Amino acid sequence: MDKVVKSANVQAEQIIEWGESQKIETCFDRAERLKPCPIGVSGACCKVCHMGPCRFVGSNAEEDARGVCGATLPTVASRNLVRMAVAGAAAHSDHARDMAFTLLSVANGETKDFRITDVKKLYKVAGILQIEFEGRPVNDVARDVAVKLIEDFGRQKGELNYIRRAPKKTQERWRKWGIVPRGVDREITEAMHRTHIGVDHEPDNLLLSCLRVSLADGWGGSMISTDITDILFGTPMPVKAEASFGIFKEDEVNLVVHGHEPSLAEIIVDVVNEPDMIAYARTKGAKGINLGGMCCTANEILMRHGIPTAGGFTNQELAIMTGLVDAITVDVQCIMPALTELSKKFHTKVITTSHKAKIQGAMHIEYDEHRAKDIARQIVRTAIDNYSNRKQEGSYISDKFPVIAGFSQEYIEYMQGGRWRASFRPLNDAIMAGRIRGVVGLAGCDNPRVPSQGLHRFLAIELIKNDVLIVSTGCGSAACGTAGFLTPEMALENAGPGLREVCEAIGIPPILHLGSCVDNSRILTIATAMAEEGGLSDEIGGMPAVGIAPEWMSEKAIAIGCYFAASGVPVIFGGESPVEASREVTKIMTEGWFEKFRGALHFEPDPEMILSLALDYIDKARETLKLKKYEPGKFGAERVLMDMASRRDLERAAKPHIGIY
Questions:
Q1: Shared-domain flag, residues 250 and 223
Q2: Considering its fold, how many domains does the chain have in total?
Q3: Model's pTM, two decimal places?
Q4: Could you please report the per-residue DSSP string of 482-496?
Q5: Residue 581 DSSP label
Q6: Cis omega before residue 53 (within 30°)?
Q7: Cα dist. 645→157, 407, 416, 475 in Å?
Q8: What is the residue range of 117's domain?
């Protein structure tokens, strides 16, 4: 019998095999044992009241079949999807709310451990919000920005502030179909009300609500979080780092930060480098303190500080199984509660830090932004004290891969023209000329129900071979990083001739790591900048661009997919469709949304079909825009791409007394 591969990550597979030999259970074993409910997986189960659950099976699985209250299958499937998007939007937006209040606390001088790091980004956001900033104290501007963004959560009427950032034509589509969000919490509450028994039963209307609450995440919560994180901790620029389980060191204290909120992790980055902490670690026999990341907290500190990452969602148990992790600190979202039971077999301390997210069996050290460094020191000392308790068992892995990360909208503009000529003109020109066929956002979770990270890796290689530039976020970025895909050399080895030429000229990888899952909002602002640059579509819809989440598993992914679809991007999710039971709902999300917004949401389990569908969308968009037909290696005599050195020479000639940003 052929061996079943559970992870496409060779190092992860080694740890899984070692765990099996030790009879240690992981998410991969549970995924194999616990089969999905065949009714619920297709959206054919309603449990919003106590007359049910109503299951649409057998002769009751027709489109016009009805539950006890009379709700049809399309209504039930639509409601289920809306509720997933609501939970996803709530998760990202609650994260953003905390960031907004942290910014306000900094502006008011209520916390001594944080400061405004990127004043330029603060002024940019102030300008978008129509807040005067010239000649004013930085903290006064920051206070006004924080207050105005906090208003976006509770606003009852009007529109989110950041709606004005979208292309005018995109905004017009939203207003025409009534999906412009008012306030984040307003949309979350209304969407939940709509899905209560006896309220909204019209599938198209329910799905428009799904788009509106998702837009409140993408152009509200997530975008707010990204901007505030940049303001407080710095807008990312490319950094070198490392990825995979080989980041852990046998002779140092290994502390992992895991989850999604960056504030505490930022302070821990400072604390592990304090001389007193390093000296304390040495008193315990360790040579130093090694900080690593997991999931999106990893992406946050990797993007800004080059802190190495052990990977994404499905790697969290495996990190503990190396036997080298002395403590893992977790906050919110995508934390497996299985960590605490697993940690008993090793020596790892699992530390929860959020009042919203406690786990039985974990140590709790609650984070408070007003005492951030004191709490960080307590966590680091806990890890140091546990170093001497390491046991001999564990699956030691030494392999690790280089990573180049840290690509923000601001840096992507700069890298194409430098300080004085920053723009998206070179990228647009490369797409128009056919050097770059199109752009794909490769994002989403990794999932133990498939060979984990395998779909990400397959699509990454195949897309860049086809001259498609990839922008990645979240666990999609982690999957690429732990495969060794996030380096410029990757372009030379695997990219198509046109994409390779562009990557060589600018000096970038063919896969641009944009950050955590909230940083999908960076893709929205990049797409907007490309539309405003001209030469392609005058809105986000219609561009040769596609979003793909091949191994999605969380409700956040549904919200992300829906806000991209509403913004005009066709989106393809891997795996079975959560609305597959209803042909009507499927048609609305594909054909209906494409007609209204030029975006769509597909579910496709076959990776070859995902690739084919993505390339088909890209090629049809090129044809509609009357761009040069894509032909590998045939670019004509368009303008010559300038490399970064040439651009810097131009800048020095123009402004010899000013350095490069």
A1: no
A2: 4
A3: 0.94
A4: TTT--STHHHHHHS-
A5: T
A6: yes
A7: 50, 19, 11, 33
A8: 73-233
